[in-house]
Write a structure and sequence with these properties.
211 residues; alpha+beta; four-stranded antiparallel β-sheet; two-stranded antiparallel ribbon; 10 strands; 40% helix
Length: 211
């Protein structure tokens, strides 16, 4: 058995609930998809009106695959590269050269562990705080979806009301694309589109509507 979160909109706020389900061990895509089906089954048992969507490259749904952070780009760069290259620590950063390496190499760069405590994010001169938690990741994710997907594809997010990311373990990580898509779902409910929020607008939105 395993436990993983699903993100959804409730009372006009993005919220999260954890579900216990049978885990299928192994690195094969087929094993991951069995775990996804098991997790989605747990969600459906809790809410018969649930329409869950897996957000990852392991998703059986083409929209979920397109929404994977590995397939989204912003200004020509992957989200992972932008995220890691924007970190500023007490002892160094931001390390802009991480924009031009493989995403896995950006994530594993030793400077990210040897530069002291994380202070904030610096993206194109815009400074993002560490709190609200995940606000910077959610911001660049939102921008990348708006840039990478068609309007029709973005509107299809409204066909779903629970969002999962089978690889995300909240005990090991903070950011998840499932939460980011739930935020976009709320924006679509409120504005019928993804607004052109600047940094301050998005931080205010995130502070008010994301639990």
């Amino acid at each position: 058995m395993a436990e993983r979160p699903a993100y959804f909109v409730s009372n006009s706020k993005v919220t999260v609930k954890s579900y216990s389900f049978e885990w299928f061990a192994g690195f094969a895509v087929s094993q991951k998809q069995k775990s996804i089906d098991s997790l989605h089954g747990a969600i459906l048992r809790s809410d018969s009106n649930a329409k869950p969507l897996e957000i990852s490259t392991k998703s059986k749904n083409s929209l979920g695959v397109k929404l994977s952070a590995f397939n989204l780009k912003l200004n020509g760069y992957t989200l992972e590269n932008i995220y890691q290259s924007s970190k500023v620590f007490t002892g160094g950063g931001a390390y802009r050269d991480l924009l031009d390496v493989l995403p896995k190499d950006a994530k594993r760069d030793p400077r990210l562990k040897n530069s002291g405590a994380l202070k904030y994010f610096d993206y194109n001169g815009d400074i993002f705080p560490l709190f609200p938690q995940t606000v910077f990741y959610d911001y660049i994710y939102m921008k990348a979806v708006k840039e990478s997907l068609t309007d029709e594809e973005i509107q299809k997010i409204r066909d779903y009301n629970y969002f999962t990311d089978i690889e995300f373990n909240p005990n090991k990580s903070v950011n998840t694309q499932a939460k980011s898509v739930a935020i976009i779902r709320l924006m679509l409910d409120m504005y019928n589109d993804i607004p052109d929020f600047n940094k301050d607008d998005f931080i205010a939105f995130h502070s008010k509507y994301v639990l």
